[in-house]
Amino acid sequence: MQHITRRGFAWLAGLSFYNEAALAQLSNIGKLPPGAVKINANENPLGPCREAAEQIARAVREGGRYFFEEAAEFERVQAESEGLSTAQVRVFAGSSDPLHRSVLAYCSVGRPLVVADPGYEAAARAAQFVNAEAVSVPLRADYAHDVREMVKAAPKAGMFYICNPNNPTGTITPRADLEWLMANKPAGSVVVVDEAYLHFCEEPSAVDFVKKGQDAVVLRTFSKLFGMAGLRAGAALGRPDLLGRIASFGMGPLPAAGVIGAHASLKAKGVVEERRKLVRDIREDLFTWMKAKGYEFVPSVSNKFMVDVRRPGGEVVRAMAAKGVYIGRVWPSWPTQVRVSIGTAQEMEIFKRVFAEVMG
Ligand SMILES: Cc1ncc(COP(=O)(O)O)c(C=O)c1O
User: Which atom of ligand 1 approaches the CA of 96 most closely?
Assistant: First the structure.
């Protein structure tokens, strides 16, 4: 038997720290009571579209197989829909996995990760695991990533993490800033653009940086607009050598229901436009109501937003939960703001009533 060194043991123990179960579950709030309104994790209450649900039923019936060929087919359709070659696409069970792998591959001691604050925390936690510094730079006053400060803050950066639109704010980092970052980032660093929420807005994708062979990796997920968070499918788009570095941590078989459902979702007509409009209409109705009530919120283009509750945010999160409405979490740098996900129109009516009661 091989000896496991102290360092090796830390690595093994650490795996349980950074893995899916630990990191993708920042929003794990346990089992909820019947009738609870769950608007804490930016999920899509509609679930998979009809076309995906039908194919997923087939995957369940035939689930005794590995379905390797279906994963290859999903990769092909994903590549085709982005105008990329299959060598520029790797499919995963969601986007948390390639996000964590990117940090492990591109960051190390002396090659920091650079993130925005407030931002999605998973990348910084993965950095801890490899003892890479996570340099955090506040969002600009317009809630975009402050790319100039991010570059200034870490001249030896290994990876810049840009979530566009951002989680938790639902705000955009303009195209011109991304172009500036690509042109001015330190040599050898990689820009990872997390487009988990891109489908909810009309912004362009960063995928053209990949097409041009630049040092960029774009992450996509089927957990949000496509309503497949529990089914698991996602993709990393990038130059083959950059994808090779994240694939080197191992590529096991993927969940058939996720792969087959994602493939069907990509092929289904009009799903993105329909769902984008549905979420926008509910969000705009809510924002109109909040403005009329005098609540201050960050103008999001996504399926969640931050609202200023003018007291420690956790108090409002707990008071709402006591009334059956489970909203999202609070970021330490914005202690009086809480994140709220957009649920169904009916759920947001309940949110309005309970929020008004709690705010007093
Ligand atoms: C910005 C962002 N990236 C990635 C993820 C991971 O999602 P998944 O692993 O379900 O694709 C999330 C989940 O909430 C997220 O908000």
Answer: 9
CA pair distance 68, 161, nearest whole angstrom: 31
**CATH 3.40.640.10: which residues of the chain?**
50-267
pTM, to two decimals: 0.93
Class for the domain spanning 50-267: alpha beta
Per-residue pLDDT reduced to its tens digit, 303-334: 999 999 999 999 999 999 999 999 999 999 99
d(CA 251, CA 258): 15
CATH superfamily placement of domain 15-42+271-359: Aspartate Aminotransferase, domain 1 (3.90.1150.10)
Ligand 1 atom nearest residue 197's Cα: 1
Count of other CB atoms within 10 angstroms of residue 266: 21
For residue range 340-359, list pLDDT tens digits in order: 999 999 999 999 999 999 99
Distance 225 CA to ligand 1 centre (A): 12
If 0-12 CB within 10 Å is exposed, 13-18 middle and 19+ buried, where does residue 92 land? buried
Omega before 165 within 30 of 0, i.e. cis = yes
Segment 212-237, tens digit of pLDDT: 999 999 999 999 999 999 999 999 99
